[in-house]
Write a structure and sequence with these properties.
This protein is an alpha+beta fold. The chain is built from four helices and 15 strands. The chain folds into two domains: about 90 residues, Beta Barrel (Elongation Factor Tu (Ef-tu), domain 3), CATH 2.40.30; about 140 residues, 2-Layer Sandwich (Threonyl-tRNA Synthetase, Chain A, domain 2), CATH 3.30.980.10.
Length: about 240
């Protein structure tokens, strides 16, 4: 199987698209192209709707990679559907949810740029997100972080995408901030995200094109998760 064309990378703002069914396994369906982002890197899989040629709407509850490079599957709310290989569907994202993930994910990169220590974990959410840091002796304050974070948001910094080879990444291990999640290997060049001159790192998530689109955010809580680990929570303000 050729896999799904990752249209969510071509244009993260595309909300609808026609696609052809390439595989069906109960409530899981694969398409020849998809605007649905599959769960990964702390970002949830997209949800939305497939509309069949007969006008039937099928809810999409989750989107995930199969483990085979290029293969992405979408979980419908029931296996009791009539989709078959070769059928054409109109696909539509739950756009508000996706756009909040895009805003949050870019905001988390900004947050990480303000705390120059290794990241031990993280999770992107539509309402709130978190990053865990191996803080050591470094001190952080939520009011100070909030102020500096919003200064970066208001700076209207461009967000640009590129790629880096595995060999280039091996020569620059400092680009990998997250200790718990490593960039995928063996599938070709690795996608990168650059936010002005603020942050540059490998990342497979979806992002806004300018930091101003994030809107006002706030560090709502900093939790002690061990002798060195601190969990920083981020919410829209």
């Amino acid at each position: 199987m050729a896999g799904s064309k990752e249209a969510f990378y071509e244009n993260s703002y595309q909300q609808t698209s026609a696609a052809r069914v390439t595989a069906v396994d109960g409530d899981w369906v694969e398409l020849d192209r998809t605007i649905f982002y599959p769960m990964g890197g702390g970002q949830p899989g997209d949800t939305g709707v497939f509309t069949t040629a007969d006008g039937v709407n099928l809810r999409v509850l989750d989107t995930r990679r199969t483990g085979t490079p290029g293969e992405i599957r979408h979980q419908l709310d029931s296996a009791d559907h009539t989709l078959a290989v070769g059928d054409t569907v109109e696909t539509a994202l739950d756009w508000e949810r996706r756009f909040r993930h895009m805003r949050m994910h870019t905001g988390m990169h900004l947050l990480g740029s303000l705390i120059p220590v290794p990241v031990t974990g993280g999770s992107v959410g539509a309402e709130k997100s978190r990053l865990d840091f191996d803080l050591g002796e470094h001190q952080v304050d939520k009011e100070d972080l909030t102020r500096r974070l919003n200064d970066l948001v208001d700076g209207a910094h461009p967000v640009e995408f590129g790629t880096i080879t595995e060999a280039e990444l091996d020569e620059r291990p400092d680009l990998i901030r997250t200790m718990s999640v490593q960039p995928p290997r063996g599938a070709g060049d690795i996608r990168t995200v650059r936010i002005g001159d603020i942050d540059y790192q490998p990342c497979g998530g979806t992002h806004v094109s300018n930091t101003r689109e994030i809107g006002a955010v706030r560090v709502s809580k900093i939790e002690n998760k061990g002798r060195r680990n601190r969990r920083v929570h981020l919410v829209f303000d």
